[in-house]
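Regression test attached.
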Amino acid sequence: MIGITSYGAYVPLWRLSRDAIAKGAKGEKAICHYDEDAITMAVAAAADCLHGVEREKVDGLIFASTNSPYKEKQAASIVAAGADLRRDIVTADFAGSLKAGTTGLRFACDAVKAGSAKQMMVTAADRRQGAPLSAYDQDLGDGAAALMVGDSNVIASLEGSYSISDEILDVWRSSDDTFLRTTHERFAQTEGYVKVISEAIAGLMKKNKLEAKDFAKIAIYTPTARRVADVAKKLGFDAKTQVQDVFFSVMGNTGVPYAMMLFVAALEEAKPGDLILLAGYGDGADAFAFRVTEEIEKVRGNAARRGMKKHLDSKMVINDYKTYWLWRGLLNPITEEGFLPHHYWKTSPVMLWRERDRILRFRGGKCKACGAVNFPPQRACGNCGTEGQFDSVRLSDKKGTIWTFSMDYLSSQVEVPIVCPLVHLEGGGRFQVYMTDCVAEEVKVGMEIEMSFRKIMVRDGINNYYWKATPIRA
Amino acid sequence: MESIKDKVAVVGMGCTNFGEKWGENADDMAVEATKEALEDAGLELKDINAAVQTTLFTGETGSQLARWLKLNYVPVSRVENFCSGGLDAFRTACYYVASGTYDIVLANGTEKLMDHAGGFGKVIPSSFDLPGVDHDLPPATTFAFFAVRYMEKHNISYDRMRRILARLEVKNHHNGTLAPKSHLKREITIDDVLNAPMVTYPFGLYDCCGMSDGSASCIVTTPEIAESLRDDYVLVKGLAIANGAGQAYFKASDNTLIGGGDKLEANFPETVNAARSAYAQAGVKDPRKEVSHFEVHDCFSSTELLTYEDLLISPFGKAPEDLEAGRFDLDGEQPCNTDGGLKSFGHPVSASGIRMLYELYKQLQGKAEKRQIKNPKLGLAHNLGGVCGYYNVAVCLIGGRD
């Protein structure tokens, strides 16, 4: 049996009230903090998916996005490092199309079916940008999803899949464009979305001899809150009972990961035996039928997983367009890098490479002689002095407490103040770090924290990632 | 191991005005400070056998000092120890003399911070093992760690801590008004400090030292040669440096503010270690009684407060009491930062350590004019550089002739 073996999602803590974009507009959309992008969100979703999974047994990682921060250089390799996966795995970026996530999922299923991988993780994340004050600016949200595909302990077995390739200019962005472009909305949605995703779903049902009534839930991409109902109606699904809530009023259209995030939400509510439809759209469409198994209870029982529900429930809302624009890097008064202007040293790719296990994997050294965790890793143990006898240990999944802290009011135009704690980690490891996603006034000595993979700054075309502390997210 | 006590004499000192010296370059300042030191000692440039120079930001060799002063192929070493380069240059010069290798040695510290917008941070050279992409905290943040931890340890509220630190800065600002060469000459009130804009929690504007350009020079020699030059030379009593290796981060049983542990033994452990060593060399048994006046590295207000304790002058947790009782005021029992300290006199990084000696020396000679203290006997300079867990702290003791 082949199918989904684990799932995870990530919705940023921050929401922008749509009222900030257009007075009176309803609801909120999920937005990245200034230090988040598609890569950081994919790492967070991957971590969510990895709860209860042995990382050493993951054989590949796909990163799907229309918003890789690099035009040339793989993003999946960064996500795989952030997720602390093995080195002898296959990684690939699926890009360009809104269906990159579901297409990546199809290829992952094929790899597992072919036996070239036992377990493949598909991550999808997007941080798309509509032009200021446009309809897109209101509709689009940020988020990520991760699905593990494997051939044992399957929680949702793959019953069939069907794809369409379709050439149409409905949404596009050239390599020089900052903002999305679109054409006549009625044309894009009737000849594009509704027609093509329906064609893929109908093809799937015909091929696998399924009818609309066989599905407990349909988790399908939709460009707007309403449009999914047109597809449901056209194919004979009951919009009230069968269509997964698309979270448009609380999150928005998250692009590439959208359908996968809705699928995760459907899995959170599903019963064993339920048939769930997953369909992604963009320059064609991919449709899948998954049958939920008894195994779902084990995965769902892992309290550490936040999935869609907990991520959506945990939020901080801003109603301030200027702050949102500043966080997007589109309104930076001093420098386009400008996250933290006091970063005075030039980035050395050589040093980044040499320190990659610490920087990206957040690994420390555990002394074999005395057991002390040294972070950053040392040549000789700082506790007992033994030289060169360390086991590399993952610290990114450890919690800790704030031992002391300060708050810098001058160094950044983007975040004031920057909270800088000195953290004592559970199981060992004391270090200084930045804190993010917090309310400065609530930070205090003794506060519990967890680690989060973030973008520190961009310089010389290099996206510099590292770990920050955050309050434990509810 | 022999003690350095009474083996080296200070015979000449010079110091420029500290401040925003837009019209002067480093060479202008180093020449001015050295000229004053030579005149003070009654020596000429050709009498200098060797020199030690300290700057943080040039990345050059000691030859820059040779070029500025036009030294004639005499050896010039350059030391770099972040903010504590000044006292390390002095210490190195003293050892040159004590070893018997050179008779008359010059130590100079010069810094030109104000040529670059952003000053300090914009010209810091990179480190070998930090790619500079992980975290990169400006100095105020790391020093604030100690203040916040001190409040937690001794159960001091934020408002109470702000008042204690304000009391300290009112003192340093007052002393600065009496020092002709200081950068900031302005009396302030407790309310000024409390109402100032926040820089880094819990520090407001007045908790942070001035960023300045400046240069200071010192000439050391043997007591025998000193005898031939002047009556009021000053003798070195103890020279110590301690470097942190991150013990607070790595030692399971570390008993410091940052490391934790049950029994507090140090706020800044580097300072305690350097102080103990310097006191042992000088034969000081009770620093609270024997140190007559001292200059500490008050880069931020709480650093001075915590250093009273680390120098074993105030018991742990009792520095606020001593401060508020006036112990460290100009007319107190143990005046501290009589020239205004880094806060008011200014902080051209590598020049600061030698500037501290300049003040101790003038006090010992009775030449401190309006800020002259009573009965100066043994002066202590404390110079601290680096980052949390890895400070380089120098403690030097100098005293008058018996």
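Expected vs. actual: identical. Chain B touches chain A through 47 residues (CB under 8 Å).
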